[in-house]
Amino acid sequence: MYVAITQPLTFTEFLAWDDGSGREFELWDGIPVPLSEPNANHEDLIQRLCAYLENHCQANDLPYVSRQSKQVRLKTASGEKEKSRKADIVIFAKEEWQRMKTSSSSAAAYIPPPGIIEVVSNNWKDDYLTKLAEYEDLGVLEYIIVDYAAFGGIRFIGSPKQPTITIYQLENGEYLPPKIFRGEERIDSLLFPHIPLTAEQIFAMSR
User: Which residue numbers delimit the Putative restriction endonuclease domain (predicted)?
Assistant: First the structure.
């Protein structure tokens, strides 16, 4: 379903736009497209993981700020209508977040953020295929896919399917082959190099 508007919106116009329904949207070719609501497990994991990462950054003086459910402006060609994704967790550079605090504009990823985390739901192909290509093209340094309920295809999480965390890290404009983590394996993150989290501890945040 597409929302009726009189003309395509820019990213900035979209952030200020409200259809009054209370629904969440992404921007696609200048047109706001409504999103389905996450289930309770999905939402709990996002909230708890985002809070954990924010505390970890503060405690370890890392130059990042973690925020949940933020719009990310995607890369578009000249003359192409603007697009966005509403990412589950966005890892902002602290400097960029401080800059936004001095502005009255909506807080969003106007420039490519260092990291993005997506928690997988039924539409798993978006996270493993479409968003992967979009975030690589955008230049996101680290893209983390948290598949707590093993929704993904077997080519991504193996057979038999099991909860999996997949981490893509950018090098020379391309994502390297992914790092895969399950069970009690400790996460190996570019942005959070000493984080004491196992895959299972992250999955447990949904319970």
Answer: 12-197
Tens digit of pLDDT for each residue in 62-72? 999 999 999 99
Domain boundaries, the chain: 38-206
d(CA 77, CA 71): 19
Identify the three-state secondary structure at position 156: helix
Question: Over the range 24-50, which residues count as b (16 or more CB within 10 Å of their CB) and which as e?
Answer: ebbbbebbbeeeeebeebbbbbbeebb
Which tokens is 187 given?
């996460």
- pLDDT per residue over 59-101, tens digit each? 999 999 999 999 999 999 988 999 999 999 999 999 999 999 9
What DSSP element (H or E) covers 117?
A: strand 115-119
pTM: 0.96
